[in-house]
């Protein structure tokens, strides 16, 4: 564990889930996050972009909101895309970039992810840069190497504790109910911390390193207590306020 442990962040990634009827859950998350039981972590929800305006009205600043992706450019002829500035205007203070589903569904490279992280900075938003190995890469003993390379190539120069969040999400743990061992998570997070400090200096001790991949109420306390795990990026279990708040309570 680093000496300057940052305030943890528990962020929910709703992926392509949620119509306006889901605002009730977002409201319940905001209400619950404001209560003492929810603990000390910063809480954020990254709903589909279509819900951001309504979500901002619903939560009234009680929790943070984020986008799930952005285009590197501020504006232009990019049909179907959304810019970091647009997300910022809708109330996003975080943008997830480089999620493995974007990398696999849309062929996103580390270089593109880096451009998206820069776009977030340009818009005054903190990127949550996602990295993580596939199961084959882990079985081949390459997990540390792969994630190290993704970190190096996906994060722009100039990262600080205030402008960057990193999420380690082993691809094989996402939505599967499987998680790495606590030792493997500790090893990876320690490795990422070391690499970030080598590149960005001591300030990187404060960069929040989230773990993501099948985080549930039942395993949250154990995972979130691991050294250099400064929060979670939660998929499925963030869709229901009861489950998501139970995860946040790991920091109570
Ligand atoms: O961004 C979130 C992750 O992909 C984790 O998803 P999950 O909690 O459903 O495994």
Automatic annotation (TrEMBL):
<dbReference type="InterPro" id="IPR022896">
    <property type="entry name" value="TrioseP_Isoase_bac/euk"/>
</dbReference>
<dbReference type="Pfam" id="PF00121">
    <property type="entry name" value="TIM"/>
</dbReference>
<keyword id="KW-0963">Cytoplasm</keyword>
<feature type="binding site">
    <location>
        <begin position="13"/>
        <end position="15"/>
    </location>
    <ligand>
        <name>substrate</name>
    </ligand>
</feature>
<comment type="pathway">
    <text>Carbohydrate biosynthesis; gluconeogenesis.</text>
</comment>
<protein>
    <recommendedName>
        <fullName>Triosephosphate isomerase</fullName>
        <ecNumber>5.3.1.1</ecNumber>
    </recommendedName>
</protein>
<dbReference type="GO" id="GO:0005829">
    <property type="term" value="C:cytosol"/>
</dbReference>
<feature type="binding site">
    <location>
        <position position="175"/>
    </location>
    <ligand>
        <name>substrate</name>
    </ligand>
</feature>
<dbReference type="InterPro" id="IPR013785">
    <property type="entry name" value="Aldolase_TIM"/>
</dbReference>
<keyword id="KW-0312">Gluconeogenesis</keyword>
<comment type="subunit">
    <text>Homodimer.</text>
</comment>
<feature type="active site" description="Proton acceptor">
    <location>
        <position position="169"/>
    </location>
</feature>
<feature type="binding site">
    <location>
        <position position="214"/>
    </location>
    <ligand>
        <name>substrate</name>
    </ligand>
</feature>
<dbReference type="InterPro" id="IPR000652">
    <property type="entry name" value="Triosephosphate_isomerase"/>
</dbReference>
<keyword id="KW-0413">Isomerase</keyword>
<comment type="pathway">
    <text>Carbohydrate metabolism; erythritol degradation.</text>
</comment>
<dbReference type="GO" id="GO:0046166">
    <property type="term" value="P:glyceraldehyde-3-phosphate biosynthetic process"/>
</dbReference>
<comment type="similarity">
    <text>Belongs to the triosephosphate isomerase family.</text>
</comment>
<feature type="active site" description="Electrophile">
    <location>
        <position position="99"/>
    </location>
</feature>
<dbReference type="GO" id="GO:0006096">
    <property type="term" value="P:glycolytic process"/>
</dbReference>
<dbReference type="GO" id="GO:0004807">
    <property type="term" value="F:triose-phosphate isomerase activity"/>
</dbReference>
<dbReference type="GO" id="GO:0019563">
    <property type="term" value="P:glycerol catabolic process"/>
</dbReference>
<feature type="binding site">
    <location>
        <begin position="235"/>
        <end position="236"/>
    </location>
    <ligand>
        <name>substrate</name>
    </ligand>
</feature>
<comment type="function">
    <text>Involved in the gluconeogenesis. Catalyzes stereospecifically the conversion of dihydroxyacetone phosphate (DHAP) to D-glyceraldehyde-3-phosphate (G3P).</text>
</comment>
<keyword id="KW-0324">Glycolysis</keyword>
<dbReference type="GO" id="GO:0006094">
    <property type="term" value="P:gluconeogenesis"/>
</dbReference>
<dbReference type="InterPro" id="IPR035990">
    <property type="entry name" value="TIM_sf"/>
</dbReference>
<dbReference type="InterPro" id="IPR020861">
    <property type="entry name" value="Triosephosphate_isomerase_AS"/>
</dbReference>
